Amino acid sequence: MDNLLNQVYKIWGFKKVELIKAIRSGISKKIYLIETNEGKFILMGFGPTYSEESFLRYISVLEYLENKPVKLAPKILMDKEGNSYAKIDNKFICIMEYIDGRTLGEELEDEYRLGETIALLHSFDDFQIESDIRINDTIEEAYKKFYECPYKSKLYKIIDVLPNFYDYRQGFIHTDIAPHNAIINKNNKVILIDFDGAGKGSIYIDAGFPLITQFVRFHGPGDLRFNYENAKAFYSGYSSITKLETKDKQLIYAGAVFWQLAHMPSYQPGTENNMLDILKFAIANRDELISVL
């Protein structure tokens, strides 16, 4: 860690660099809060398991959002040579603005604000680098992983009727919409973080992400519930920016189903599959889920 800080000291031209704390210590990505003579910053290190292509897309995403009239993401700090990143000890390194504020929670007001912010993000439609969502590959894989499932025929029917999302509106998407990936800063603005999979893609898949993933949960063994109030708050915020017609709502629901299929593990006979139960619940309660949109 000392060598990394020394290299950052030299490359970015700081007069001092001190580690305050580690925020995330994953295998592919490490995140630190540092103190410098210019203030606090976020230091991000991307390990060898994080591909160069993914890292360069991450940097491009932040540079793209920095040039938009509405601030939705942290700013990258250029080094003293004007570069947005460096490679140190076989790791890609970048330094970003530290957002002083609080992480959003699962309260109604925060969900509403998050919905507004995501709708603004989706309004950006001139980013050219694709997100990491591979729609056709995901659908093909879904057929394979449910081949031995006793509900295979029903699941296949669900997969069969998924729309061709490429035929519908594309925009800038986040791919991991959740309160913990957003911060309200001191100016009461919502700033999004964690853009690992972000890029150009289907806004309906992205808008559908929280509908099942976040708002349908177990509250004990066999007790599945839909958090109607929080879901309604999020999508009310979204629709305050982007009006949703009937077709839009159907596509968002389809996007939610797509995500659930993507996240589900391969079926293994004799094992519990809570995510399959969640999908079955979402299908059985389709009208209630769509009613919040």
UniProtKB/TrEMBL annotation:
Pfam families: APH
Domain Protein kinase: 17-293
GO cellular component, one term: endospore-forming forespore
Superkingdom field: Bacteria
Stretches of the chain forming a coiled coil according to its record: none
InterPro entries: Aminoglycoside_PTrfase, CotS-like, Kinase-like_dom_sf, Prot_kinase_dom
Descriptive protein name: Protein kinase domain-containing protein
Lineage of producing organism: Bacteria, Bacillati, Bacillota, Clostridia, Eubacteriales
